[in-house]
Specification:
Rossmann fold; alpha/beta; 7-stranded parallel beta sheet; 9 helices; about 260 residues; about 15% strand; globular; 7 strands
């Protein structure tokens, strides 16, 4: 399949983990990829991978508005414009789970990475999409933002809820301009980071009980999410906008 031949995609926080799987899926289907990530080490490793070798990487801090502007200017300087934007960067940043243990800094940091970064990057990318009359924006939400979380705190849940609500408003505003906007809401996808959190915050018995609550009786894989993102980013999904696509094995369901 080469659904993305001739398309350019920007994926944030994508030098490893879930973001890297998304970028690799889009690249495998023909897209030219640009990746923003904070970790120079992860970027160097991704550069060497056969899935992402030859694509564009740029390092910077997505919680810093000035640094986002620098990175976007650098990409523009390479004549890179984007048909597809995947706002993937996020996480609970290992902040406390208990509401009363979370301080202002815990909330500010998580909101900055999960919400404000997506807002700022979108502001840079959307004008080009508007000019060309075509765009696909896919925001990464979470089961946590839909149904609460077993192992992350209220700050992360609130941040993902905000991203998901913002997705609906963006879909209304930019739909008439040829741009769709959707969110993918994964459940517990076993990236190394999630595996560490689960190991630290849940007993083996609790993890087994959580697994048994998933109708398909397995945890998610990064490939599950990448496939969902690829569909929403494709031309095939041109009549799909303002949707929150749950990828959680049925652990959370909504009619």
């Amino acid at each position: 399949m080469e659904r993305f031949r001739g398309r350019r995609a920007l994926v944030t926080g994508a030098a490893d983990g879930l973001g890297a799987a998304i970028a690799a899926r889009l690249a495998a289907e023909g897209a030219t990829i640009a990746i923003i990530d904070r970790s120079e080490e992860a970027i160097e490793k991704a550069r060497q991978s056969p899935e992402l070798s030859g694509h564009t990487f740029i390092a910077g801090d997505l919680t810093d508005g000035a640094d986002i502007a620098r990175m976007m200017e650098a990409l523009a300087g390479q004549n890179l414009t984007f048909d597809i934007l995947i706002n993937n960067a996020g996480g609970s940043l290992h902040t406390p789970k208990a509401f009363l243990e979370e301080n202002d800094e815990d909330w500010d940091r998580v909101m900055a990475l999960n919400v404000t970064a997506a807002v700022r990057v979108s502001r840079h990318v959307l004008p080009g999409m508007i000019e060309r009359g075509y765009g696909r924006v896919v925001n990464l939400g979470s089961k946590a933002g839909r149904y609460g979380s077993l192992f992350t705190g209220a700050n992360y849940v609130a941040a993902k809820g905000a991203i998901q609500s913002m997705t609906l408003q963006m879909a209304q505003e930019f739909g008439p301009l040829g741009i769709t906007c959707n969110a993918v809401c994964p459940g517990a996808i076993l990236t190394p980071r999630v595996e560490r959190l689960l190991s630290e915050r849940m007993t083996p018995e609790e993890r087994q009980k959580a697994l048994e609550s998933i109708p398909v009786r397995r945890n998610g894989r990064v490939e599950d999410v990448a496939a969902a993102v690829a569909f929403l980013a494709s031309e095939e999904a041109g009549f799909v906008t303002g949707q929150l696509l749950d990828v959680n094995g049925g652990q959370g369901m909504a009619s």
